[in-house]
Specification:
The protein is mainly β. It is built from no helices and 19 strands. Helices cover 0% and strands 61% of the residues. The strands form three sheets. It has a seven-stranded parallel sheet, with no helix packed on it. The radius of gyration is 14 Å and the shape is globular. The relative contact order is 0.15.
Length: 171
């Protein structure tokens, strides 16, 4: 039942390649992202139906890669200060984030410092790649980033996709 929110976290261990399929799920993290990717790991996240992640979405550290695929949709709701949709926070660089899906990826952030997709710091290994589908990001906070990073040069690659970003903040 996708209307029923379940408190749950998924941890991808360090140094692995994993595939996870989400099919009509509604999951909420408890003081951490719903999906936590370990160091030097690759996660292929396949979407089916309509999926929702709340509190924080997906943690992608510098040495790791996330590939989102499938024809389903993913909505991430971040509703607290220093919140993250997909990427990495706390002055650590994020890794490679790639959307190869045919559906819609929607990230909604509300809080003090919020990042939709990306992180507080980017470095030479950080990359945001959107190859297909629809990307929608809404970030509202005193300091907010829709897609990208607070510090460092963000490498963003757009291919056959539609992107809509709304970001507002006081600073």
């Amino acid at each position: 039942d996708k209307e029923r929110e379940v408190y749950m976290g998924i941890k991808v261990q360090d140094n692995v390649e994993a595939t996870i399929t989400l099919s009509d799920v509604n999951m909420r993290g408890r003081e951490m992202p719903v999906i936590d990717i370990g160091e030097n790991a690759t996660l292929r996240l396949c979407l089916e139906g309509d999926n929702t992640l709340s509190y924080e979405g997906i943690y992608v550290p510098k040495s790791s890669k996330l590939v989102i695929c499938g024809d389903g949709n993913l909505t991430i709701h971040v509703d607290h200060n220093n919140g993250l949709g997909i990427g990495c926070m706390n002055d650590r660089p994020y890794g490679v984030i790639c959307f190869d899906g045919l559906g819609t990826l929607r990230v909604e952030n509300n809080g003090d410092l919020v990042v939709g997709i990306g992180g507080t710091v980017a470095d030479e290994e950080s990359e945001l790649r959107f190859n297909s589908g629809n990307i929608e990001v809404i970030s509202n906070g005193s300091k907010s980033i829709g897609i990208g990073s607070v510090e460092g040069h963000t490498r963003i690659v757009l291919d056959d996709c539609s992107v809509a970003i709304s970001s507002s903040g006081a600073d």
